[in-house]
Every structure is written in C-alpha cells, then in structure tokens.
Amino acid sequence: MIFAFVFDRDYYSLGLVLLALFSAQSPYGGLSLEIYLKSCRIQQNYTRLNTMKLRLPHAPYVANKIALDLVSSGYIELGSNMEKISQIAKHFLEENIKKEAALEEKVRLLLEANLEEIEFLRVDERQFFWMAKKKLAEEEGFILAKDDRYSHLSHQILDELIKEEVIDFGVSDTIIKNVIFKAIDGYVKIYESIEDVVIEKIENYKRKIIAGTEEYDMVFEKLYEEELKKRGFL
Questions:
Q1: Is there a domain that residue 94 lies in?
Q2: Residues 6+ away with beta carbon under 8 Å from 112
Q3: Which parts of the chain have pLDDT scores under 50?
Q4: Residue 16 placed within a domain
C-alpha cells in the first residue's frame, strides 16, 4: 500500500480518511488502495471525475434518441419496428444507471458510518464521496469515465440489436456503434450545463447537504427540474 504525503491540508486529510476507510478494518475490508496525490492544489473539477451521471428519467429519452438517429442515419434497415430499438436501448441504459445507484449506496453508507472522522479532519464530503466512488468503481469493474462508459453501452446495445435481428446494415459495426455513441453523448450534453448550475447552487447552500444522500438527490432533482423548465425542456 502506497500513500504519498503532500503538504496540502485538504488532500492530506482526504488521503488519511480514504486510507483508513479502505483498510482491513473497513466495512469493505481488504480493498487495495494506492493513493497518489500528485498535486498540492485541489482541482476545481476533481470531484466530477470526467463523468456524467445518467439518471433513470433520462433513459427513455436517450433510448428514443438512439432509435431516431439510427433510423435517420441511412445506414440501417429495420428488421422490426423502431420501438424495438428503443426498448433494447432503454434496457441497457437503465441497467447501467441502476448499477451506478447501487455503487453510490455503498459509498453513502461508508460516508455515514465515518461521518465524525470526516468532519473532524475537515474533509469536504463531496470530495470524499467522489473519490470513494471512483475507488469502489475500480474494484467492482464499473466504468465511470463517460467516453468509455458510453462506448461500452453502445457495444452492448448494438450487440443485442444484431442478436435480436432488429436491424441490418452493410457498413462496419464501428459506424453503427458511433451513431449510438453520438446519440447518447449528444443528448446528455444538453444537460451538462444544467447540472453545473444545480451543483453550484447546492454547494452554495448555507447548510451543507451530503452528496449521495437521499436529501441531496431530492434537492438536486427539484433544482434540476426548475432549470429544465427555464430552458423549455419541461
């Protein structure tokens, strides 16, 4: 186990907490942890981990976007109806989203069980949540990086469409996979700016709300819908 000490108090404290929580005494004991803290300055977007969290309410809309883009691409012939494409895409999207939710529940329990230590060391709860989430994701083989995640989903959806003979095409699998990837990525990007606004609002609350908790999710969804309405999406 390697722990690189740095002189930044926030990184140092966060490293100590992670080191303790992922030790053999942790509820998730035995997880190997190598913490390399290469910077003495906390990057502003560190907790985002280059991820974009998909949410269950998004799944049917993203699935429909995939179906529409495939049909309008000119690359495929339908062996079934367009609704079948949406159903298959929705299944894999929801499955992936639920796996992330289960992962976050583990992190939430870990955070709540060690809240006193985290507060004592003055560690930012949101930073802790995302760093712990990243570590558990690595241990469980769940892909967080958005490009890799969307690529994996695109492969799953395409493989199932081929297996079920929903579509036929005369171009390479890569071209069709890229249509699916761009549909997911393009749709999600509509919401990225909204998520940034919502996260900033929550971070500016006078009373700190812990990321990953039920309260955080409720506040997030409320503010999220308000921003969607402002932009004419609802």
A1: yes
A2: 210, 213
A3: 1-13, 17, 24-50, 234
A4: no
Residue 72 lies in a domain: yes
Count CB atoms within 10 A of the CB of residue 80: 14
Evaluated on CA atoms 153, 155, 161, 164, the torsion sign reads: negative
Q: Are strands 167-169 and 2-3 parallel, antiparallel or unpaired?
A: unpaired
Residue 40 in domain = no
Asked whether the beta carbons of 68 and 86 are under 8 A apart, the reply is no
Count how many domains the chain has: 1
- Displacement of CA 8 from its chain's centroid (Å): 27
Contact 223, 191 (CB under 8 A): no
Other CB atoms within 10 Å distance of the CB of residue 62: 24
Burial call 180-199: b when 16+ CB within 10 Å, e when fewer: bbbbbbebbeebeebbeebb
- State the pLDDT at residue 3: 32
Find the domain containing 86 and state its range: 48-230
**Helix-helix angle 82-113:59-72, to 10 degrees:** 150
Residue 172: the pLDDT is: 95
- Is the pTM higher than 0.70? no
